[in-house]
Amino acid sequence: MKLRRIMIAAPKSGSGKTIVTCALLKALKNKGEQVVSYKCGPDYIDPMFHEKVIGIPSKNLDTFFTGEERTKALFYKGRVEEEFAVLEGVMGLFDGLSGIREEGSSYHLAKVTKTPVVLVVDAKGMGRSVIPLIAGFLAYDKEGLIKGVLLNRMSKSCYEIIKPLIEEELKIKVLGYLSERKEFQMESRHLGLVKPDELEDIKERLTILSEEFTKTVSVEGILELAKEAEENAEEVREEESTEKEDAGGISLNAGPVIAVARDEAFCFYYEDNLRMLKENGAKIKYFSPLHDSCLPRGCQGILLGGGYPELYAKELSGNSSMRHAIKQAFHCGMPLVAECGGFMYLHSRIIDKEGVSHDMAGAVDGTCFYAGRLVRFGYVEIKERESSFLPRGEKIRGHEFHYYDSTDNGEDCLAVKPVTGREYACIMSGENCWLGFPHLYYPSNPLFVREFVRKAAEYGKANEI
Question: Is 426 a catalytic residue?
Fold first, then answer.
């Protein structure tokens, strides 16, 4: 497929990738382009900006989670040649696993998908020194993927002097610049950017940003680079579920209803995770632990994703009917998967940063508390000690990033760090539950999804739901 595409990457975090990506997406949409976006790595919030603020479809891609071939398949899945794909990088261009491996890096994703790269350089406080910085990245780019440069936080007068020097010495296109303006900055917290619905006037700010972007950056130049992307001649397909019935006679097409928590407190979901649930026969019904009084009628399974339950602890605690409904469903054996924030919500209580205790669902007999530091961070491979959601010996990949800890993190699974090999116990896993801090990426092992849906269908059949 010949799909026009471009990656926005940078030498380091904080260079302005998200600002540039959002401005470009909006500019392309305003031009009438059928634009889609991808975020490299396990970040949840950047895709929210793409979808909620700009109104375009967005999802994650990660070569550590799914390897080269499946990542390529996920990239092309559902795409048509009329579309324009923008990939937003993560961290520095070459920063992969533990910051040292290529796997999981923006560069690896660009290489796998054969995507031209625009390097966004934070040039504040720099003059000619920006040239050797760019030269170093070009020299390290063995695949020749870096096709253009964009200078961020640079004045017009400085840009007009530096641009011809860069192009003459390095033979690379300089596509434009963005000046430093307060309204172009986005607030952040410990997990990265704050959610888009927490920012005042975010749409108006992005409109101003996009208008400025089209004045100082060559959108046409970016379009031309995207047209140069190589065609991927080989046919790429993602593995899909083909079996319609398991050995126990449970039809996966019977459509078990899985209740998925989705509101201000629980909003961290990979788009491909939800897609895989549907492709394996599940019918998703969203509900709000904040605002609803009960679970969706007829649900046969529950998925509690991550988010910021600690920011809404008072409201969650006050919704006692929902807390009791989830606790009762759990004790009745309804299949339940909870990740990070969802795991925190299942505890007896959460103690917030101010030391205030808030009652939670009480399905897990323990307390979550603010640790005052990053407790776990980075990629993990997880396997169960006793097979329940995964066949014996199988692993699923995920990511952790949390400042809250628990008095009981579970010991039913073993997590392994992919670079150091360090191991630690985690997860409460049983016949019908998988509860813990790690965020799972289902495409890394589709068997997990199939088993979750099978358990939900079996529960519904046994309880005549």
Answer: no
